Amino acid sequence: MSAIEDVVRELSRLPGIGPKTATRLTHSLMRGPKEECLRLARALTSLAERIRPCAQCGNFGEEELCSICRDPDRDAALLCVVEGAFEVASIEGTGQFPGRFHVLGGRLSPLDGVGPDELNVASLLARIRDSNDAVREVILATSPSVEGEATAVYLEGVIRPLGPKVTRLARGIPMGSDLEYVDGSTLVEALAGRREM
Amino acid sequence: MALTRLRLQDFRNLDRQDLQVPPEGFALIGDNAQGKSNLLEAVYYLETFRSFRGAADRELVAFGETVFRVQADLGREGGEGEVRSVSAAYDRSSRRKKVMVDSREVSRIGDGLGRLGAVIFSPEDVALISEGPGGRRRFLDILLSLNDPGYLEHLQRFRHALQARNALLKQGPGGGDLVAWDELLTRHGAEVLSRRMRWAIQYAPLFRGHYGAVSGGEEAWMEYRCTAGPNPSAPRAEDGNAPSPSAPPVQELTRRFREALDAAWERDRQRGWTTVGPHRDDLYMGMGEPGETTSLRSFGSGGQRRTAALALRLVEGECLRRSRDRRPMILMDDVFAELDEGRSQRLLELLEGPGLGQALITAPKDSEIRLRRDTLPRWRIRYGRVES
Questions:
Q1: Count of domains observed in chain A
Q2: A43 touches chain B (CB under 8 A)
Q3: Taking CB atoms and an 8 Å limit, are A146 and B157 in contact across chains?
Q4: Distance from the first to the final alpha carbon of chain A
């Protein structure tokens, strides 16, 4: 197995990258300066060695607790539950969410053998319970797919008895789109979720 | 919509051909096994992107070839913003299907459905009546996916939730999170139920009327029968004074479905699958005087079942006409051969009315072309080649 084939094979394991793209990326790396290639290698090494899941929320960080959990200015009353760390990055990117996160590590999917025990649900419930009512609202930000919805319904059922308000991300018309181009079912959701001005 | 040009490539026994289709349609004449039905199958493929005969896509590719392609150019029957072309191609080696509307690939096949606005009548339709409820549910699902916005998405979500719930049931006890799936199942299942019920109630009188017209005065009726929840009775009273039934609101259906799931819980758990719900329902067909319940499926004669199947297709055509506000294209595959003279004549009278659009029909002999006998251009087909 040559070094080239090694890299192609490893790259093509990544989501969204097929053998062709992997080959193209590998050739691009070979054509470029050697230093560029090594810089990528070092970055990957430190990613593998230094990043670990946060002991509290499951987000990725470099220490016992991630930077969000360590930040004393984050609002402890608001807890946003997401499927993966990628969604944390998306929501953080908006700069509009002052609360904290909890990463489930997936969503309920009986066909894939994923039940509540396979997700970070116990740690979520413990976190809410141990906060002594400091968590006042839990925002369920799982995806609007069937599995994401079922996950949200399940979580709502187990969180509500613990006291906090449980909310769900709104669904409807995307920003910047024209009503003319919105499909029927999205419009129905948007109508159902309308709010007073 | 009217077909103006049809291009084919390696669809079953039809090789590469490019056909200009007259606005009134055509009558395709040819011996058995020359490709008459294949041509209609190819056209209707552009409506639903699957074979109306239930064949898998790979079986539609000509023997020894890897790709089939069907493309239709459509003429306007009025109305701005209508689609000009639809095409579909399937590659057997990569198992990839490509659907294009107006030369642009659609991201989901559901977005391309129903662009022809066609109804197909075929001798195999009799299976709709004579076989189990599955075929009738499929009929409803296709019809409503094409004509009721949002139906397909609810149906897909319902099926998804059903699969998940069944997987949990198979895993046995300890699946305490069944509740979450029940919520999804009932939410989308009730939407499916509600739309199917509304349809059945709305079109029940028309079905009865068409059946009576074709059969020459016999009675038949249809109603939607639920395994989970209420069964609205079909309007059967002759006097017209009976309160017209209506489908219960979705919230009510959700509640009833949930109760039915709870009641069936023990049985579902034992069997390892969900035994009540829209996936077990029937569009029931009965015959006889009002009040009698004689199943067409069990007791209908061959001719009665064929008549019911025709009535159902005529209802489909009317549904299409109402939801698109234009005349449906009619595809008829050798339908008259199966009917006695009286029924043929009365069906013809219904079909010659102004409500139907372009007609593509097939028959083995010119003498059996009865619909629009004097106006339809005759085309011939031999060994899969059409001579127009």
A1: 2
A2: no
A3: yes
A4: 65
